[in-house]
Design brief:
The chain is of the alpha+beta class. It has 4 helices and 14 strands. It is 24% helix and 41% strand.
């Protein structure tokens, strides 16, 4: 009898420990999320630290109770700003952008007066332990541009592979030259390879269309 009681007590303690560990992992995995819907409504929740490309919806949790609050379809989201409470000066902004028939989340890399530089990962966007967003892709990270007033993003080719910036690939010069055609000085630097795919942030920040 004593052996049975000891065994049951051990199992109970182990169960409590496992439950506590699972709760701790879940708590660590939650990050802050400022959600802006396509109708303009803005809300602040908690959510999982990783967003997958294949997700059709995202589950959000109440900031105070940390209990499940609501599930929102990804296509109803205009933007998603994610950050960890201990790193309020970091974080990252995901935009839900349109490319042809597809809608997909892209990480905002730089914002210019007339163009926004984007990064697209075909697997995950994850808020790491340091509070910044890392990207996981099967092959490359695509660079995209959302021009002022445009309804769709334009993707100009690979800008990184395995987190390492790469140069002029996949027709970047042709695509970028067409996209930034209203700034001849910038196009000249793209054409002579002074500026390449790895300079996409600078290109978007520098773009100054000549009417």
């Amino acid at each position: 009898m004593q052996k049975l009681i000891f065994t049951l007590l051990t199992m109970f303690i182990f169960s409590l420990s496992a439950t506590a560990s699972a709760a701790e992992r879940r708590e660590k995995d939650l990050v802050n999320a400022k959600v802006t819907l396509i109708n303009g409504e803005t809300m602040t929740y908690l959510t999982r630290s990783s967003i997958a490309r294949t997700q059709k919806s995202i589950t959000f949790y109440n900031v105070e109770t940390r209990e499940e609050e609501t599930e929102i379809k990804c296509d109803d989201i205009a933007s998603l700003y994610l950050w960890r409470s201990e790193f309020e000066d970091k974080g990252g902004l995901l935009l839900r952008v349109k490319e042809g028939r597809k809608n997909k989340f892209c990480l905002v890399s730089a914002i210019g007066e007339h163009a926004i530089s984007l990064r697209y990962a075909d697997m995950y966007y994850t808020v790491n332990d340091e509070g910044t967003i890392t990207m996981t892709s099967q092959s490359v990270i695509e660079g995209g541009v959302l021009m002022e007033g445009a309804k769709e993003a334009v993707f100009v080719g690979a800008v990184a592979t395995n987190s390492i910036l790469i140069g002029d690939k996949h027709g970047f010069r042709r695509k970028a030259s067409e996209l930034f055609a209203k700034d001849p000085d910038l196009v000249a630097k793209i054409q002579d390879k002074t500026l390449t795919a790895k300079d996409l942030d600078f290109i978007c920040e520098s773009y100054s269309p000549k009417e």
